[in-house]
């Protein structure tokens, strides 16, 4: 979830309806973390705690943090030890054997602050395993949004950070991590409620400056611009996700 200091725009109900694929497709990241009984793990950007629970099921102690109080409330209801915390201002000190993060860090637009906090949160030799959107992620959608906003004299806010492998590698190394593996790959992603459901769940920051009465029209326009690339003849939308997955260890 976003780490920005703004009103909590997340709704656990809308997330469950439109975004369950995010945790479903993140399950392999838990396998790469390979949490073990007796370890302490931090889930950075835990959302409603679906993957935090998977980590706990492996026997590890796990704390989830998220900037969204409504998502943290949903995680707590599901039995997760979750806390409201800004990912750019983590307040842990050598408390964890591993830090895990799935589809959350691209919402945190000061990656230096994030990685400084992850480094401080880990014990010496601790591991950091995660996934985030990579350069080129949802490019067709962002181009469509940019065109529709530009036609109204609006610039899209800088809401997401999608690094190249080289950028992310440098950031990790500058913060004392040794990279074990890191790769970028396209992952075309079918979405349950089309581009409209996706925009209304994930795109809210983009439309902040659009007068409320015009938002539906802008969303409809964005969908028309993206339709030829992302929607099949039966009306199924498959979005142009590109992921960056990595495992690193603190020196
Ligand atoms: C993603 O998971 O790649 C993503 C989520 C929301 C907005 C943009 C990208």
Percent helix, as a range, is 25-40%
Which distinct ligands sit in these coordinates? Answer: benzoic acid
* Beta-strand content estimate: 15-25%
Spans of at least 5 consecutive residues whose pLDDT stays below 50 are: 1-5
Task: Write out the strand line-up for the largest beta sheet, numbering strands in chain order.
Answer: 3-2-1-4-5-9-6
Describe the global form.
globular
CATH architecture of the domain at 12-137 and 159-192 and 239-250: 3-Layer(aba) Sandwich
Which structural class do you get from the secondary structure elements?
A: alpha/beta
Q: Please identify the top-level CATH class of the domain at 12-137 and 159-192 and 239-250.
A: Alpha Beta
Encode the helix/strand succession as letters: HHHEHEHEEHEHHEEHHEE
Describe this structure as you would to a colleague:
With 251 residues, this protein is of the alpha/beta class. It has a domain at 12-137 and 159-192 and 239-250: Vaccinia Virus protein VP39 (Rossmann fold). 38% of the residues lie in helices and 23% in strands. The protein has helices at residues 12-18, 20-25, 27-33, 50-57, 69-77, 111-121, 139-150, 165-174, 194-202, 215-230; strands at 40-44, 61-66, 81-84, 96-102, 122-133, 177-186, 189-190, 238-239, 242-250. It has a 7-stranded mixed sheet with strand order 3-2-1-4-5-9-6. Helix 5 (69-77) links the parallel strand 2 (61-66) and strand 3. It is globular, with a radius of gyration of 18 Å. The two termini are 28 Å apart. The model is unreliable at 1-5 (pLDDT under 50). The protein binds benzoic acid.
């Amino acid at each position: 979830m976003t780490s920005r200091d703004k009103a909590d725009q997340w709704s656990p109900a809308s997330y469950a309806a439109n975004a369950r694929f995010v945790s479903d497709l993140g399950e392999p990241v838990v396998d790469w973390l390979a949490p073990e009984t007796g370890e302490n793990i931090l889930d950075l950007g835990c959302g409603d705690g679906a993957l935090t629970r998977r980590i706990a099921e492996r026997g590890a102690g796990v704390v989830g943090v998220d900037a969204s109080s409504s998502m943290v409330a949903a995680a707590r209801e599901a039995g997760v030890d979750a806390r409201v915390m800004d990912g750019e201002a983590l307040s842990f000190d050598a408390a964890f054997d591993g830090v895990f993060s799935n589809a959350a860090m691209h919402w945190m637009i000061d990656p230096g602050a994030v990685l400084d906090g992850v480094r401080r949160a880990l014990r010496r030799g601790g591991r950091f395993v995660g996934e985030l959107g990579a350069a080129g992620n949802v490019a067709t959608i962002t181009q469509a949004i940019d065109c529709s906003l530009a036609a109204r004299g609006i610039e899209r806010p800088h809401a997401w950070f999608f690094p190249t492998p080289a950028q992310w590698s440098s950031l990790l190394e500058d913060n004392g991590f040794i990279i074990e593996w890191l790769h970028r790959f396209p992952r075309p992603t079918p979405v349950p409620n089309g581009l409209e459901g996706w925009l209304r769940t994930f795109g809210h920051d983009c439309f902040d400056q659009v007068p409320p009465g015009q938002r539906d029209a802008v969303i409809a326009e964005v969908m028309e611009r993206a339709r030829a690339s992302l929607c099949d003849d039966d009306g199924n939308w498959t979005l142009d996700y590109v992921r960056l997955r990595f495992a690193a260890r603190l020196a």
